[in-house]
Structure formats: C-alpha cells, structure tokens
Amino acid sequence: MARDVFYQQVKNALIKDGWTITNDPLTIRISEAVKVQIDLAAENAIAAERDSEKIAVEIKSFIGGSDINEFHTALGQYLNYYQALEEKQPERTVYLAVPDETYKDFFQLPFIQRAIQRYQIKLITYDPKKEEIRQWIK
Question: What is the pTM of this model?
C-alpha cells in the first residue's frame, strides 16, 4: 500500500491530539476477493463513563498536479470507505484529512463546498510542518 506524502505527519498530529492509533492501516474485507485499506484507525476516550470515539482517517496531501483529480480520488475513496465501515464497523466514523492550506483555498470553491455538503464529508485539516490538527469539520 502506497503511503500518502503526509501520512507520518498526520499520524503524529493525531497522537499529539490525544488519539491512540489502533490500526495502521485499517483493512476491511468487503468480500472474499475485495478488501479496502484506510490509512489509519484511532480511538479517543471521550469520558470515563462513555464509550470511546472510533475513527478511520484517509490522508490526502493535495500536492500533485491537479487538485480536482486528487479530490475525485479522495471523494471516491471516502464514499467507499464510508459504505464499508457502515456495513462492517458502524461504530467508526470516517474522516478525510487534508492540508490546512488546501482547505483554506481549494476546499472553499463553491463546487467543492457543495460536494462536501451533499456527501456529508467529515474533514480533518492539518498542518504538515507543525504536525498539528487544525480543525475537525463534521
């Protein structure tokens, strides 16, 4: 499995943010012949008396030649992972992790905003240089 360019930075940022990495990667078998691999799975104890929050994170760098092509790939993966988790691990929420700078410019385009709303994409924005989570957008 090819790792995203900012994979380690996002993993470090999640750990700094209090998350425990539970799967690296998270593999979900959707049939005998087909499986999907999501970059990371993590848990965070919310409060002692409640269950922990479980997430799966697909990391994208958006440093290739075309942001719209990267978005097409990311959206397709997100929707597939959402469905796979819904069927196999419904307690887990999937997030798409994108660089903060990409979120501030490309993700503000009306077309991209409409896609995020339509497909209810949950986002994590991160700073790859500081290895920090900037925003959780649900």
Answer: 0.92
